[in-house]
Design a protein that fits this description.
Layout: E1 11-20, E2 28-37, E3 40-46, E4 56-61, E5 65-69, E6 71-73, H1 92-103, H2 108-123, E7 127-134, H3 144-155, E8 158-165, H4 184-198, E9 207-213, H5 221-234, E10 237-242, H6 246-256, H7 260-266, E11 274-278, H8 284-293, E12 296-299, H9 301-306, H10 314-320, E13 324-326, H11 340-351, H12 361-375, E14 393-397, H13 409-415, E15 421-426, E16 429-433, E17 436-437, H14 442-459
Parallel strand pairs: 1-4, 1-5, 6-7, 7-8, 8-9, 9-10, 10-11, 11-12, 12-13
Antiparallel strand pairs: 1-2, 2-3, 5-14, 14-15, 15-16, 16-17
Bound molecules: zinc ion.
């Protein structure tokens, strides 16, 4: 069952909370209010909510809370929820080679379970919009994209489903085994069908599609070019992995005679409608090209650390004007699956570039909210708390044991432990209450994921 939007005339009032709006002026209120009307934010400001509001169905006294925009996840692989904790000590290429044969045995039923596990972890850590990059489509796997979309719809998360693809197998010099890749024509047909069937471009959309060939070492040059043409013809965005590791850089130099950014440029893959995951190995010229073209970046610090890929130059990207958002990345390289904790990881890891000012608490929060919204092309609808925007909000409890002695609530959220999430609103609906999902039983999801992981492991023997 999909979560329905609330009636358009129904108001919810949140009062007595610290509010970080993440608007253009970084307005904050030490003790303010937010009023939701239907699935949109009606007003936000200092002090109590306006009096004499009609049709208030819920009034939340959010004393002791920080209210932020819902977090936006710009890169994930939901299906990996059932292959976590494997290849624990490998770099990316070895980790992929270890996992491809297992992933090539997934089907729509397993993906439904895994997607609910991943989406639940995101919601429970404050994420209200997520992009998921799915690029493994076994021949007899059923309707994998449809299963993933249905799984997310049941939980009420705002979603961008990325129809991924791989067509460069080992025989063509790629990394994945030949049985794990699809044929180019079949990919393009399925990609167009995915857009026609699922993409909702209307205001307030809960489901959008983007096209997402996987990476330079698993995708042919022709598929890169033709995916870009198809996406632009259909009016959807483009996503891929880029400049993730030193090995990818060497692969591109050997096969294409240039680094990844120049390669992407040569196949029409830089632009405001494109964002890339990782972008760890970027020189000044690469960053300048991203800035000039408005190409976005999904910064995934935990996954980059897990696979020893390196540290993306986020401060330099931000200084140059590159749009940057945060990503969890697939749960097989970030087992926590939480987006909320990535605020802290991004904050800390970027200071390892050598400056305590590389990223501030507020800049980290901006990356996880407005930054992600911009990367997904939805900056006019989500990412900040402003009148008229969609009602996607997180209410973090910052007066408990772990946070009560930190006076600055934004520092409590970004430097401290991830605070308890009292309520998470997506599209005006409270999909998390007191830290628990309100839509689907968490125990049921946990059981389905445990069974799916065992089933897939057994298939892989
Ligand atoms: Zn990834």
């Amino acid at each position: 069952m999909a979560v329905q939007p609330p009636p358009a005339d129904r108001r919810t009032v949140v009062e007595n909370a610290a509010i970080a709006t993440v608007d253009a002026h970084d307005n904050e209120y030490a003790r303010g209010h937010v009023v939701l009307l239907g699935n949109r934010i009606e007003s936000v400001g200092d002090g109590p909510a306006p009096t004499r509001l009609d049709n208030v169905v819920r009034r939340i006294d959010a004393e002791g809370h920080l209210v932020t925009p819902g977090l936006v996840n710009t890169h994930h692989h939901f299906y990996q929820w059932i292959t976590r904790g494997l290849a624990q000590d490998d770099i990316l290429f070895d980790w992929l080679v270890a996992l491809y044969p297992t992933w090539a045995r997934i089907d729509d039923r397993l993906v439904h379970a895994a997607a609910q596990g991943s989406a639940a972890a995101l919601l429970k850590s404050g994420c209200t919009t997520a992009a998921d990059h799915h690029y493994v489509f076994p021949r007899h796997g059923g309707d994998i994209l449809g299963a993933e979309i249905e799984a997310v719809r049941e939980l009420g998360l705002r979603f961008t489903a990325l129809r991924g693809s791989m067509d460069r197998g080992e025989k063509d010099g790629g990394l994945p085994p030949d049985h794990a890749v699809e044929q180019l024509d079949a990919i393009l047909t399925a990609s167009e069908e995915a857009v026609d069937r699922h993409h909702d471009a209307s205001p307030g959309s809960m489901l959008q599609i983007a096209l997402a060939p996987c990476s330079p070492f698993s995708v042919s040059t022709r598929l890169m070019r033709e995916s870009a043409e198809l996406a632009r013809r259909k009016g959807v965005r483009l996503h891929t992995h880029g400049s993730e590791t030193a090995e990818e850089e060497a692969f591109c130099r050997e096969l294409f005679g240039m680094g990844p950014t120049d390669y992407f440029d040569s196949v029409g893959w830089l632009g405001e409608d494109v964002w890339m995951a990782h972008c760890v190995h970027m020189n000044d010229s690469d960053i300048a090209k991203f800035a000039e073209t408005g190409t976005g970046v999904a910064h995934c610090p935990s996954s980059n650390a897990r696979l020893a890929a390196g540290i993306a130059r986020v401060p330099a990207m931000l200084a140059a004007g590159v749009p940057v958002g945060l990503g969890v990345d697939g749960s097989a390289s970030n087992e926590s699956g939480e987006l909320g904790t990535e605020l802290r990881t991004a904050l800390l890891i970027n200071r390892l570039h050598g400056s305590p000012r590389a990223l501030t608490a507020r800049r980290a929060l901006r990356l996880g909210t407005m930054g992600g919204a911009r990367v997904l092309g939805r900056q006019d609808e989500i990412g900040s708390i402003e009148a008229g925007k969609l009602a996607d909000l997180a209410l973090w409890k910052v007066d408990g044991l772990l946070h009560s002695s930190i006076a600055d609530p934004v520092a409590a959220l970004t430097f401290g432990a991830l605070p308890p999430l009292t309520v998470l609103f997506v599209n005006g609906n409270a999909v998390v209450e007191e830290g628990r999902l309100t839509t689907v039983s968490e125990d049921r999801i946990a059981l389905a994921c445990a069974r799916a992981a065992k089933d897939l492991a057994a298939r892989s023997i």
